[in-house]
TrEMBL record:
GO molecular function, one term: metal ion binding
Signal peptide: none
NCBIfam families assigned to the protein according to its UniProt record, in alphabetical order: YegS/Rv2252/BmrU family lipid kinase
GO CC terms: plasma membrane
Annotated InterPro entries: ATP-NAD_kinase_N, Diacylglycerol/lipid_kinase, Diacylglycerol_kinase_cat_dom, Lipid_Phosphate_FormReg, NAD/diacylglycerol_kinase_sf, YegS/DAGK_C
Cofactor(s) required for function per UniProt: Mg(2+)
Pfam family, one: DAGK_cat
Protein name, as recorded: Diacylglycerol kinase
Protein source organism: Alistipes communis
PANTHER family reported for this sequence: LIPID KINASE YEGS, SPHINGOSINE KINASE
SMART domains the UniProt entry points to: DAGKc
GO biological process entries: phospholipid biosynthetic process
Top-level division of the source organism's lineage: Bacteria
Annotated keywords: ATP-binding, Kinase, Lipid biosynthesis, Lipid metabolism, Magnesium, Metal-binding, Nucleotide-binding, Phospholipid biosynthesis, Phospholipid metabolism, Transferase
Length: 324
């Protein structure tokens, strides 16, 4: 193991700031965040990410330089990149780096699980308190351009309709569309355009599904889609994925039960089935796409495995108390 380089103090933080997170909130809020960090005496070097995957590189470099405390200032995509950087670097085990999030993204789903405040001032106070938790990390193997690739996930993965929603959302954003209803519009538009596919799912070696499937979500965390509790029973350190399988469903059926998506009662919708396991395989004909933590990757066949308690994250005191 390489010791911290002499110019980085033990308690110094490295902040990776995504200026485009939350439609520019990252950039707009940065002066205030910087001031709040100073007020809380959190010594910090801050760097802006300049392009997609830059946060991966910045993380690798920060750990190499001796940083053992990193703050991701952004949304779930920024956190996803930082965590992937933690697994790419070879200097220390990923869990030796303390990771905190100041959420300035659009969805901010990861923080919901751990009771981290949306409000920057409160989030920074939580960082100061340094309550930490070892959470599981999923490893996903997927296919892209005929090659097998793998990536780490920190919150929720979705395949099928869920990935189509992300594709549609990204497409509309690229076309310059903005606004708080853009995601909802992507959800509705994709619902009518996406066709369920014949899908097989194996959990821990046992085939649990072989039928038409609209969507599947696998979670270390509970929330995706900006507050939907798609995996309400997920536990972030049990070494297992919670899985929700969504069979083909009529639009009106879901609309009348819409509140159940948000109140933890999603499995009361009879088209949604729950599974749980440590290794998952998904095959589909035709192929379906997969998104991880809101980032679109490749397609089936997919294999998921879990790394137990693999990263150390700053959480709220309330969350830790709820786990006791
Ligand atoms: N300077 C940059 N220019 C363009 N894209 C960037 C830049 N820095 C980071 N990115 C990319 O911005 C994307 C969105 O970031 P992020 O997910 O953190 O924000 P968000 O989409 O607003 O939040 P959420 O995922 O919580 O909804 C990521 O895919 C990241 O790779």
């Amino acid at each position: 193991m390489v010791a911290s380089s002499p110019h980085v103090e033990e308690h110094q933080w490295f902040a990776i700031v995504n200026p485009v997170a939350g439609n520019g909130r990252g950039l707009d809020e940065f002066p205030r965040i910087s001031k709040l960090l100073r007020e809380q005496q959190i010594h910090c070097e801050a760097v802006f990410s300049e392009h997609k995957f830059h946060a991966v590189e910045l993380t690798v470099e920060a750990v190499r330089r001796g940083y053992r405390r990193i703050i991701a200032v952004g949304g779930d995509g920024t956190l996803h990149e930082v965590v992937n950087g933690l697994f790419i670097q070879q200097v220390v085990p990923p869990s030796e780096v303390l990771l905190a999030v100041i959420a300035v993204g659009s969805g901010n789903d990861w923080i919901r699980m751990f009771g981290i405040p949306q409000n920057c001032a409160d989030a920074i106070r939580a960082i100061r308190e340094e309550h930490s938790f070892l959470q599981d990390v999923g490893v996903v193997s997927y296919e892209e351009a005929k090659y097998r690739q793998s990536r780490y996930m920190v919150n929720v993965a979705g395949a099928g309709y869920e990935a189509q929603v992300v594709r549609c959302f990204n497409h509309l954003k690229k076309k310059g569309r903005r606004g708080r209803w853009l995601y909802t519009w992507s959800v509705i538009r994709s619902f009518f355009r996406y066709k369920p596919t014949g899908t097989k799912v194996w959990v821990d070696g046992k085939r649990v599904y072989n039928d038409l499937l609209l969507s599947i979500a696998l979670g270390v965390g509970k929330y995706n889609g900006g507050g939907i509790q798609q995996l309400p029973d997920a536990v972030a350190d049990d070494g297992m994925f919670d899985i929700s399988l969504v069979r083909p469903i009529h639009f009106w059926h879901i609309i009348f039960r819409f509140h159940k998506l948000f109140n933890g009662k999603i499995y009361e919708i009879r088209h949604i089935l729950r599974e749980r396991g440590g290794t998952i395989r998904i095959e589909s004909s035709p192929e379906i796409e997969v998104e991880l933590d809101g980032e679109l990757l490749g397609h089936t066949p997919l294999e998921f495995t879990m790394l137990r308690r693999a990263i150390r994250v700053v959480v709220s005191r309330e969350f830790l108390e709820s786990m006791e």
